[in-house]
Please model this.
Amino acid sequence: MNALKGKVAIITGAGSGIGRASAIRFAAEGAKLVIGDKSDAVHETAKLIGEGVTALQIDAGVEADVAKLVAAALSTYGGLDIAFANAGIIGDMGGILTLIQPPGQRRCGST
Ligand SMILES: NC(=O)c1ccc[n+]([C@@H]2O[C@H](COP(=O)([O-])OP(=O)(O)OC[C@H]3O[C@@H](n4cnc5c(N)ncnc54)[C@H](O)[C@@H]3O)[C@@H](O)[C@H]2O)c1
Model:
């Protein structure tokens, strides 16, 4: 359970689902974490982890908010080794998502 010992990671969308589960696992593997989510549930994730985690309520689609996560990693834990951009941003992408979407099937997203 030490695969990430000494590593510092950022995880977006850590308020629930895959992001929360990843944050708990990264912490169990020894990583220091900066976790972000647009929901205040990110603070609940931090409580579940306990020590070695900094939680910020941010929008991963806003560059200045992402910069806050990076700044927190550098100032609180002295570096940044891993960035897990888990929060999905589905906007006006067009392209492949539109092309592969079968007729009658809705695209799902988390924003
Ligand atoms: N669950 C699946 O089967 C699956 C499959 C393929 C891709 N994904 C993608 O994986 C990611 C996580 O999926 P999940 O099932 O854990 O979703 P989820 O809805 O359980 O969790 C997503 C989290 O991201 C947060 N979030 C959404 N937009 C945000 C933003 N702009 N800034 C900050 N936080 C934001 C939400 O508040 C939520 O806590 C998503 O991008 C999803 O599209 C999931």
In short: Helices lie at 17-28, 41-49, 63-77, 95-100. The CA atoms of residues 77 and 91 lie 33 Å apart. The pocket of nicotinamide-adenine-dinucleotide is lined by residues 12-13, 15-19, 36-39, 41, 59-61, 86-89, 109-111 (CB under 6 Å). The chain has four helices and four strands.
